[in-house]
Write a structure and sequence with these properties.
The chain is about 30% helix and about 20% strand. It is an alpha+beta fold. The strands form two sheets. The protein has a six-stranded mixed beta sheet. Helix 2 runs parallel beside helix 6 and helix 6 runs antiparallel to helix 7. The chain is globular, with a radius of gyration of 17 Å.
Length: about 270
């Protein structure tokens, strides 16, 4: 039961992508099309979007896959992200995600520190290097990133997934982001997957587009390790959120630097605990 699922969405121009899955029979890394070309149209209720892909992966292989009352309990669903309110925006997105799961009769997700580290780092990297994809420019996919932060164990079963999104203005509100995911079949499937129990919220101010500096980029890394030996006790959600916010702030400061100074700054920011 080892697999990976990834999906991405840009709240700008409408188009869709795909996803992938892997199992013990032979792992194959997902191939991500960075061109983001259109494949199948969807119609989000509150926003349009350009979609990345949806990927499910388990050790052994990767395969690409192409009642709402609970949300009334989430405050500020139309708040526009600002550098000063990202912690709050992240919590509202998290609330809406769990509301969608509650409406579907699924257990709530809890925030997890290692998933948050990987999510924040990937969002910040996409903003800093101006790309939008599940594969980092250095070639790492979500499995590699979650292995690097220690979430994926060396032995035992696991399932991990990833959703991406970015938007600006009213298309960057928690409501717009979650609505767009929920109106895309592969992204909705990831968000409502019964496998997952944990999530990392990677909300970073800025976008992968040189034409839209004022916006937000979001990576949500999902996971479950049902029979893995967990590392030491996981920090509370609030501690994970605070650590992720410190790392995101440091990475935003790095964006003002250039050349070798910027690379040193990014390395130092990623080591923050």
């Amino acid at each position: 039961m080892r697999r990976m699922v990834v999906t991405g969405i840009v709240l700008a121009v409408l188009a869709s992508g795909c996803g992938s899955e892997s199992d013990r029979s032979g792992f194959r890394p997902a191939t991500t099309d960075r061109s983001q070309g259109p494949a199948a149209a969807v119609t989000p209720q509150a926003s349009d979007g350009r979609l990345g892909g949806a990927v499910v992966a388990r050790p052994g292989g990767t395969e690409t896959k192409g009642g709402v009352a609970a949300e009334d309990n989430c405050p500020d669903v139309e708040v526009e992200p600002r550098p000063q309110n990202l912690d709050h925006v992240s919590e509202v997105i998290f609330c809406l995600m769990n509301a969608m799961r509650a409406d579907a009769g699924l257990p709530a997700l809890t925030q997890q520190d290692e998933l948050a580290r990987a999510s924040v780092d990937h969002s910040a990297d996409m903003v800093a290097q101006k790309y939008f994809a599940h594969d980092s420019l250095d070639g790492r996919d979500v499995v590699a990133r979650l292995t690097n932060v220690g979430y994926i164990p060396k032995t035992g079963n696991w399932v991990v997934g990833e959703n991406l999104a970015w938007g600006s203005g009213v298309l960057a509100t928690p409501k717009a982001l979650v609505n767009a995911w929920m109106n895309s079949p592969p992204h909705r499937a990831n968000l409502l997957a019964s496998d997952y129990r944990e999530v990392g919220m990677g909300v970073v101010f800025g976008t992968p587009s040189a034409k839209a500096d004022s916006g937000v980029t979001v990576t949500t890394d999902f996971g479950v390790r049902p029979d893995a030996t967990a590392p030491a006790a996981a920090p509370t959600a609030s501690a994970a959120t605070k650590r992720s916010a410190r790392r995101a702030r440091a990475l935003r400061r790095c964006a003002k630097k250039r050349g070798a100074a910027k690379r040193r700054c990014v390395r130092a920011a990623r080591r923050l605990r």
